[in-house]
Amino acid sequence: MITFTGVSKRYPGGTVAVDQLDLEVPAARTTVLVGPSGCGKTTTLRMINRMVEHTEGHIAIDGQDIRARDPVALRRSIGYVIQQAGLFPHRTVQHNIATVPFLVGTTRRAALRRSAELMELVGLAPELAQRYPQQLSGGQQQRVGVARALAADPPILLMDEPFSAVDPVVRKSLQEELLRLQRELRKTIVFVTHDIDEAVRIGDAIAVFRPGGRLAQFDHPEHLLAEPVDEFVEAFLGYDRGVRRLSFFPASELQLRRAAIVDADHPAGAALGQARSKDEPWLLAVDSREHPLGWIHADTLANTAATTPVGELDLVRYGHVFTVSTDSLRAALDAAMLSPASRAVGVDRTGRVLGVVRQTDLSAAIWDAGGNGAAGTRAHG
Ligand SMILES: Nc1ncnc2c1ncn2[C@@H]1O[C@H](COP(=O)(O)OP(=O)(O)OP(=O)(O)O)[C@@H](O)[C@H]1O
C-alpha cells in the first residue's frame, strides 16, 4: 500500500501542485489519477518514486517512509512507464527491455532471457527483439515500455498517460492487455490519465483531482459514476455517466429469447407461424453453426412463397453482437440501439447465438441496475 498523509508539493516559484493530499493507494490494484490539466496528477505520481520530492507531509510504501530509502534504489524498485514509451532510440528492443536487469548486474544471458519472456507477456513477436524503437509502431513501442518497466519484477508500476499517444483502436487493445496482465501479475499500479473512460475501464479505484492539486473524490468507479460528491466531479465525469455506469453490470443476467431464432433452411411459411405464435415480429436467421446471418420481418415472410428457405431471402444486417458471458449491459444496449430490429444478438465466446434481447427487456434490466447502484458486479467487457 502507498500512503499519502498531508502531502503537498510547492515548486520553487511558488506553484502549489499538490495540496494536502491524504490518499491510500491499495496494494495489488490499479488506482487511476484523473483530473483536468495541471491539477497535480503527474506530480503526485512522481513523488512516489522521488523523481519529485514532496515539500510537506509523509509518503510511505508498506508503512516505510520513502525518505528513508535511497532514491536511486527506490526508483529502480518501481516500474515507470510514460507517454510515447520514452525508449532509448539507440538500443534494440531486447536491450531496452533489459535496461534495469543490466543496471543491477544480472548476467547478459539471464537479462536477455527475461527480455524474451517479457516480450511474450506483453504480446510482442520475438522477431521484433533486434529492432530499434523507431522501427516499431506507437502501440508496439508502448508494449516495449511496459515490458521494460516490468523487467525487474517491481511490486509497483507507475504509468503516466502511457496510452495517450496512440489511436483509439490501439489504445483500447493496450487497455485490454493491461487488464489481462494485471489479472496475472497483481501489481500495485498508479495510472495517470485525462480520460475518464480509460479510468473507468482500467481502474479498481479512481482519484479525481480538482485544480489547485486537491483531491476531489476517491472511489470505486461504479460508485464514482453513481454518486459524484459535487458539481465539479459530476461535470468532469460528463453527463453520460448513467450510460457509462452500465459497463459495471453484466449482460449475463439478461433474458435471452430463443423463440426469435430461426434456422436458415427453415421454410418461410413455418417461420411465419413461429413469428406469429411466439409474438416475435423479427426473427434472426442462423446458419448451421448457429452463427447469425441476419434479421427477417414477419411481413416479409408473409409476402414470400411458403416453401422458400429463410436463408434465401433478403436478410437485414444484424449489426454487431454482444458476448453474453463477458460483456456488460452497456455493450448489449449499444448492440440493440444499432440494430435495425431494435434487438441485441447475444452470442457465446465462439460466436454461436444464445438468444436475442428486446429493448423492453433491456430497459427493465437497466432500470434494475439503476435501482441497485452499489450492488453491481464488474463485467469484463
Ligand atoms: N518543475 C516544475 N516547476 C514549476 N512548476 C511545475 C513543475 N512541474 C509542474 N509544475 C506545475 O505544477 C502544476 C501541476 O502540474 P502536473 O504536471 O503535476 O499536473 P498534471 O495534472 O499532471 O497536468 P497534465 O494533465 O497537463 O499533465 C501545474 O501548475 C504545473 O505548471
From TrEMBL:
GO MF terms held by the record:
ATP binding
Q: Which SMART domains match?
A: AAA (SM00382)
Superkingdom of the source species? Bacteria
Q: Which residues form the ABC transporter domain?
A: 2-236
Report if keyword Transport is assigned.
yes
UniProt keyword terms in alphabetical order: ATP-binding, Nucleotide-binding, Transport
Gene3D superfamilies given in the database record: P-loop containing nucleotide triphosphate hydrolases (3.40.50.300)
Q: Which PANTHER family match?
A: OSMOPROTECTANT IMPORT ATP-BINDING PROTEIN OSMV
The record's similarity note reads:
Belongs to the ABC transporter superfamily.
**Protein's name in the database:** ATP-binding cassette domain-containing protein
